[in-house]
Amino acid sequence: MEKILLAGFGGQGVLSLGQILAYAAMTEGKEVSWLPSYGPEMRGGTANCSVIISEKPIASPIVARPTLLVAMNGPSLVRFEDKVVPGGVIIVNSSLIERKVTRSDVKAYYIPANDLAIQCGTARAANIVMYGAINSHCKILQPESVHKGLEYAFKKKPRLIPMNEVAYRAGFEAVEQHD
Amino acid sequence: MARQLMKGNEAIAEAAIRAGCRAFFGYPITPQNEIPEYMAAHMAENGGVFVQAESEVAAINMVYGAAAAGFRAMTSSSSPGISLKQEGISYIAASDLPCVIVNIMRAGPGLGGIQSAQGDYFQAVKGGGHGDYKLLVFAPASIQEAVDLMFVAFDKADQYRMPAMILGDGMIGQMMEPVELPPAVDLQSLPEKPWCLRGWDGQGERRIVSSLRIQPEDLEPYLNEQMKKWERIKEDEARAEEYRAEDAEILLTAYGTPARICKSAVEILRAEGIKAGLIRPITLFPFPDRAFRYHAARPEVKGFVSVELSTGQMIEDVRLAVDGKKPVSFFGRCGGAVMSEDEIVAFVKGGAF
């Protein structure tokens, strides 16, 4: 079971990324839940969502102790770094976060999501770069379901799918090539 | 049937349409706004009526009218808005009319906050409006269950001619999970409503819907009949899920999303050698007394813990059901804060009784 916490500021696409992960995993017959933070803090402030992907029915949909954290901005890393389970993973958006993860009992990846996204054509694909990074680490989704996730995300703008496939691949490879 | 990934509020709205709802009246409030939003987009194409009313009071009275005319009618709101509807709910109940009211609870009292809470248990179960009446109260713990209970709520409201409430915490409204949507009911297949208003042409039987029974010799017999109905409902309609309860020594009890957090806590406690289980009420009225009575009578059971997103409301019904046979203690978070499974585990291990 993966308990994923995605956090950033409003507009970075963390809620969408969570939906893409949940949808893609659902198409493989897995049990999924997506729980957003909601409320005034989302307006220009922080946004986060919890995604659980499991082979078995999901009990609590709340992720208090994530197995995988994606920190898209500095405040998210500060707020959630200590919550990750020992042996868990933190994927840091090193385009916006200069500091390193201070814990030694978790695996940290530093992925310049914004820079990689810009190289693919748009900074807005930073969340999709992280989509690739997440799956590169935990291999939870088959390539076909990854694609279904992108189709779901861009069902109103399918012309954006090829560019986002490239962004996904950039994130996937960045984790593979990480030390 | 294919599973879809749906937000709780949207799934509730779609399920209501499929369950035959053809009249929705509402007024916006977080965290249930996706329900009226969805109804605004989809009610007309299903031949129904959507009105964004000028207030919650207006909305519930529109439900009163539509229900009197025999339509499957519904409103939704969140805690402060549900408070505003209480007068109308009392009138609808007293007029023996079926309808469904959805309350996606936020933290109170007052304007409170917009995060998830369960502080409206008393209001839903004990009667938030004036006078002696009851609502059928259903408490889903997943999006799928919210969908399934929507069909049940409309059917049971019709069967017993009384309002039904779907009582969900904010997370039930905001969460996304896979759901299988049942097929839409055929409106022609629904039972006739021989009492509903169709307009009177001056001939034949005249139907009247009213909540006024001004003489005690009219009102008291009416209420006595209502009491008999509530007893039948308690006998026939109580629902609960038990999770690893059969050999449990400590029984957690919770409804809605906290019940799922309790399931995770049960797993942790079991792994540490503590025999924990869960009773999850699915109906809050009628309260599933029988499940509690059964376990309270088992000698191995040390006690019950009512886990709630409130300062302690359902615990009163738990205590009535347990009837002093075993200790009942309380663990809650409130004000929009949500407990973790670790907090529940720590409470149990710290000596809950």
Explain what the structure shows.
The complex is a heterodimer of chains A (179) and B (353). Chain A is 39% helix and 21% strand. Chain A is an alpha/beta fold. Chain A has a single domain (2-176), classed as Pyruvate-ferredoxin oxidoreductase, PFOR, domain III (Pyruvate-ferredoxin Oxidoreductase, domain 3, 3-Layer(aba) Sandwich). Chain A has a 6-stranded mixed sheet with strand order 2-3-1-4-5-6, with helices on both faces. Chain B folds into 2 domains: 4-198 and 224-236, Rossmann fold (3-Layer(aba) Sandwich), CATH 3.40.50.970; 241-349, Rossmann fold, CATH 3.40.50. Chain B has helices at 8-18, 34-42, 56-68, 79-84, 86-94, 121-126, 143-160, 170-174, 216-236, 257-271, 289-296, 314-322, 341-349, and strands at residues 4-7, 21-26, 49-52, 72-77, 99-105, 136-138, 163-169, 176-179, 240-243, 250-253, 276-281, 283-285, 303-308, 328-332. In chain B, helix 1 packs across helix 2 and helix 3 (56-68) runs parallel beside helix 5. The A-B interface holds A 19, 22-23, 26, 31-36, 38-40, 58-62, 64-65, 152 and B 3, 5, 30-31, 113-115, 170-171, 174-178, 257, 260-261, 263-264, 267, 338, 340-342.
SSE blueprint and pairings:
The complex is a heterodimer of chains A (179) and B (353).
Chain A: E1 2-9, H1 14-27, E2 31-36, E3 46-54, E4 68-71, H2 74-80, E5 89-93, E6 107-111, H3 113-120, H4 126-138, H5 143-153, H6 161-176
Parallel strand pairs in A: 1-4, 4-5, 5-6
Antiparallel strand pairs in A: 1-3, 2-3
Chain B: E1 4-7, H1 8-18, E2 21-26, H2 34-42, E3 49-52, H3 56-68, E4 72-77, H4 79-84, H5 86-94, E5 99-105, H6 121-126, E6 136-138, H7 143-160, E7 163-169, H8 170-174, E8 176-179, H9 216-236, E9 240-243, E10 250-253, H10 257-271, E11 276-281, E12 283-285, H11 289-296, E13 303-308, H12 314-322, E14 328-332, H13 341-349
Parallel strand pairs in B: 2-3, 2-4, 4-5, 5-7, 6-7, 10-11, 10-13, 13-14
Antiparallel strand pairs in B: 1-8, 6-12, 9-11
Helix pairs in contact in B: 1-2, 1-7, 3-5, 10-13, 11-12
